[in-house]
């Protein structure tokens, strides 16, 4: 585990990124978007800010489940990127070495459990943000699924 639950409370007071987390997120966004300093599942999501109107970048770990790509909110429903994606109607750009225009479609709560389990297996930094272990049963993941939005990544354009 990269960060313990104690670190999480310091870095994400009230479930929102504090000063240290914001600095580390900026560094991670640059690393994720480079495409050569990180695994291909580390991406930077760029979406128009719902208040500022400026493009905002968020480092995320993409999950691949049954051949489809997903983005999971480790901070739950209140994450800024989730609100921005919803306000933008799902329009966003993924960066991992190149820019890819995408549409993010929020998936139904009933479909989230296996994707959440896959996400926790691949994203160790997210584990302190979840109340269950990555080896938990699908029923346990289903019980918390409504708290963690998941978006299907669909390419836009040719």
TrEMBL record:
Pfam families: F420H2_quin_red. GO terms for molecular function: oxidoreductase activity. It comes from the Bacteria. Gene3D superfamilies: Electron Transport, Fmn-binding Protein, Chain A. InterPro entries: F420H2_quin_Rdtase, Split_barrel_FMN-bd. This is Uncharacterized protein DUF385. It comes from Micromonospora violae.
